[in-house]
Design a protein that fits this description.
Number of domains: 2
Structural class: mainly beta
Distance between the termini: 53 Å
Radius of gyration: 25 Å
């Protein structure tokens, strides 16, 4: 009697087990773990940075930068190794109150690329990014070392690491470099180089 019951249970498990597993995969394939390269189609991030000015500018700039960034997946590298990961193209809008320096604010946009290094089963995701853009500030050409005109170009580059909280949410820390210049449209053209830490929250879709 006991043997017959055991055989019945094993038969039911054999028949229903694969069906249940297939059903779980159909409903939520993202629940299978972190071993697969799950590159999101779209990500939106809110980022904050506090940067200090240095290198060839006499003014001690301090800037509190706020970014909103949309990133779109652009190819993956699936092979094993440290380069495993995926590319993204991004569009970024920036609002930067200038806390210390001749000017008071900077507004701009940037477009560029980001690469995310993703290892199997890893919640920590290192990244590098870089882009170029343009923007406007309230220039004061009569102040030594201030920007020569309102319209400027910008260069952004960053390096850091994200931590995957769940399937949709990541938080991150990193370092940011920003260069502002009007590309020689005024003489002198006192460019501005800013460095500082950055924190971010990213939602993926």
């Amino acid at each position: 009697m006991h043997l017959r019951s055991l055989l019945s249970v094993l038969l039911i498990a054999f028949v229903l087990g694969p069906a249940a597993e297939a059903g779980n995969e159909a409903v939520s394939p993202r629940l299978r773990g972190l071993s697969e390269l799950e590159a999101p189609s779209l990500a939106v991030a809110a980022e904050s940075s506090f940067m200090w000015g240095s290198l060839a500018n006499p003014n001690s700039y301090e800037v509190a930068a706020q970014f909103v960034t949309a990133r779109l997946r652009w190819g993956t590298i699936e092979r094993d190794g440290w380069l495993r990961g995926y590319n993204q193209v991004y569009l970024l809008a920036m609002v930067e109150p200038i806390l210390r320096g001749p000017e008071n604010y900077y507004y701009g946009i940037s477009v560029g690329f980001r690469y995310n290094f993703v290892q199997p089963n890893a919640r920590f995701i290192p990244y590098i990014s870089g882009g170029v853009g343009l923007g406007w500030l309230d220039s004061h050409a009569d102040v030594f070392g201030a920007q020569g005109q309102d319209f400027t170009y910008n260069i952004l580059s960053a390096i850091g690491v994200d931590y995957r909280v769940n399937d949709r949410l990541k938080v991150g820390v990193g370092g940011l470099y920003q260069h502002l210049s009007n590309a020689g449209q005024t003489d002198p053209n006192p460019s501005l180089n800013l460095f500082g830490p950055q924190v971010s929250v990213t939602f993926e879709f």
